[in-house]
User: What shape does this take?
Amino acid sequence: MLELPDVERMIEGFSGYATGKTISLVVIDDPGSVNLDPEAARQHIESHAIDAVERHGKNIVLRFRSEHSLVFEMEDGGSIYLESQTVPPDDNSRVRLQFAAGRELRFDSPSNRHVVHLLANGDSSTLGGPRSLGIDPLSDDLTAEKFIETSTSHPRSSLKGLLMNPAAIAGIGNEYADEICFQAGYRPDLRVGQMTDDELARVHLYLRRVLKRATLHWQAAHADPGWLINHRVKGKPCPRCSTKLTTINLIGRKTYICVRCQQAA
Ligand SMILES: [Zn+2]
Assistant: This one.
């Protein structure tokens, strides 16, 4: 599953090259799957430079000097990467943004629904594209107080359900939600309304720790024997206490738990 740290790595792969460069041509390979009018793309993207590359949840946002942004909704199997214009595009190529020097930024996606949106700048709530997205978990706006406040408005949700609710917190997927619960020491099926402020503050602390480390030191995190993410096999011993890991189904997702390390209430 595509997770927030994967999207960060994708951005690292092209932002240094693309930022400040002007798009010479927009090629729409699959008009049916992008919410992008060719005339609007010509007007607001072509001949305009990319000012900044940003991420909100799992969406990648290209801000242009034309005061417009392109928002790419990244889903499983989707990617944005640099390629030479001489290499033929993949079958699931959706949009290509060409630079004068012969390279292009490619957006591939297996999804058929509208996954690219051209938006006017100025309203940060539009960064979610057509869906309103919650706070980005790595933004400074997600303080412990804000996390507790968000939790209070979803008292009946499970802890994992809250972490994975994109309208509350944008971009946490199945594996990192389990990792955050494991490292914080709480069962993911705990009802948020039954948790104290101190317990929620601890979840917030580990939410930031896990995602920051996975983003900044992806390889080290994915080689860390103490991380649950590297032991996701039912019956395998818990990396902390060697109790066999259990799986439960939570919000339709396979969820890994150590019943000894993670508090039920
Ligand atoms: Zn354990």
Notes: Strands lie at 23-28, 50-56, 59-64, 68-73, 79-84, 93-99, 103-108, 116-120, 246-250, 253-257. Residues 238, 240-241, 243, 258, 260-261 surround zinc ion (CB under 6 Å). The longest helix spans residues 197-216. The chain has a mean pLDDT of 91.
